Amino acid sequence: MRDGSYTYKLFHRSDFSAFWALFTDNLINLMVLAGICQFVFQMPADIVYGRIVPGAAIAILAGIAVYVGLAKRAAAEHGRDVTAMPYGISTPVMFVYLFGVIGPIYWSTNDPLLAWQVGIGAGFMGGIVAAMGALIGPWLKRVTPRAGMLGTLCGIALVFIGTVPLATVFENPFIGFASMIIILWGLVGRFRLPFNIPAGLLALIVGTIVAFAIGEAKISTDGVGFYPPMPYIGDLIAGIQHLFANPELFLVLVPVQIYNFIETMNNVESAEAAGDHYPVATCQITDGVGTMIGAVFGSPFPTTAYIGHPAYKRMGAHAGYIIGVGVVIPVAAFLGLLAFLNNLIPVAAAAPVLVFVALSLITNTAHSVKTDHMAAVTFAMMPHVSAFLMVKWGSLIGALGAVGVAGLPQLGDEALTAALLQQGAHFEGHLALSQGAILTGLIWGAIVASVIDGNFRNAGGFALAAAIMSAFGIIHGASLHWPELSGVSAGYLISAAFLYIYPLFHKEDELVNENVVVEEAPTTPAE
């Protein structure tokens, strides 16, 4: 339908419900990063609410402007309604920047201003790395099976976007259950709520009312004021200079930004699986440039095309929902309303929305790949379970130290590792899987899917790439280093050799997997 009679409407009534889901997602990220910066890293409120939050809002606004334009162009090209890509602060990368860049600077110098300066310097340099993903992103998308790209996203969704918020719900069941049942009814079950109230909005209202009733919410105007966005060029330069004076920080920065542009690639693939097609290179450049703009205006945290497009597509959203976020988040940031909302809305009331996003991504993946490729999806999810375990084991050691337990060994201590193994906790194996989990999940998902399809050369190529990356410490390593042949990289080389050589000595009919049903990956029909 390209005869000129089609008109794409930016706003649809379904956008209202989608807006509350995406707004809540961004709001939770902003609440978390603000709380950690202020109370863990002792940054003064004028830095947190006067610089970081407005800078993040400017980055979100810049990216949303581009993604609205991409949605209009996609709708015009295909002659049908599309859902704009959701956009915001990358949740996994946000935590890496908090505890891998900002935290170490603060803990070593006890200088929150320097920690913030290094943070925005890292954000700016990381934006450059993320934008460079546009050079290889389209090629990676062509050679990587959908099961690998979506499977590793499902792993993130399962453990970080789904399990952690669900635990928050169970920590505060009075509030969490009240919100959760509304999300299940209105968004998962898709049943109509009274007066067509968006489920996300009603869940927040009910959760907040319950919180007031039990004394866990309050109205406070502390921090409310006018915080116009300002460029911080001098602070940015100081942060970049510190980065180059301490290049070991790049060992954290580069791998996580490689993850970030691959995350964007995966999310674009997720949107395509749901029926909406966007140029992956343009999206990666947008995310990188958005991150750089945010850094100039004071935010260290990378932005990205969000996980969860299929959830908003399922709601019937157009582009209005991200436009709404692009208006409300900056207004709240510039007026200091985030501090007000931090006191007003309990996290347990908003957490069920994230659980819904995780459920939607995993179920949509199951419908968008071949049935036999679900084995690859499952394999791709597993490294993220190891990453989750490593985070929580580290938290446990830190908590024991915080309550005064003396003489604690560090994770990685030989005696502790041996003791953990005796208790059935395979620390070394989980550590290796956790290091570069997003890439490891993608690689193994691609290998498994390619083997299932009998595409051994493609599988061997991914195994060879994994051998090279593990030799440099990009995956299965604590940091980047000069190439060295470890047991893991040697294992990848053996696997690659098998996948390349073994098929040469067998007839083609002997390499056909008779148990696999050949079928096209299902796609969402055009609207």
Concise structural overview:
The chain has helices at residues 14-39, 45-78, 91-109, 112-132, 137-143, 146-171, 173-188, 199-213, 233-245, 250-273, 280-296, 309-315, 320-334, 337-344, 347-368, 374-402, 414-422, 427-434, 437-452, 456-472, 487-501; strands at 87-89, 303-305. The protein is mostly helical and 527 residues long. The chain crosses the membrane at residues 20-41, 47-70, 82-107, 113-136, 148-168, 174-193, 200-219, 239-262, 319-341, 347-366, 387-411, 431-452, 459-479, 485-505.
Written as H for each helix and E for each strand, in order along the chain, the element string is HHEHHHHHHHHHEHHHHHHHHHH
Assembly state of the chains shown: single chain
Number of domains: 2
Measured as a percent range, the helix fraction is: 55-70%
Averaged pLDDT, please? 85
Tally of DSSP helical segments: 21
Q: Cα-atom Rg, whole angstroms?
A: 23 Å
Residue runs with pLDDT of under 50 for 5 or more positions: 518-527
What is the overall silhouette?
Answer: globular
Q: Major β-sheet, in short?
A: 2 strands, antiparallel
Distance between the termini: 11 Å
Class computed from helices, strands and strand pairing: mainly alpha
Number of strands: 2
Identify the strand order in the major beta sheet: 1-2
What share of the residues does DSSP label as strand, in percent? under 5%
Task: Write up this protein.
By secondary structure, the chain is mainly α. The chain contains 21 helices and 2 strands. The protein folds into 2 domains: 14-177 and 213-369, no CATH class; 377-403 and 410-504, no CATH class. The longest helix has 34 residues, at 45-78. The N and C termini lie close together (11 Å).
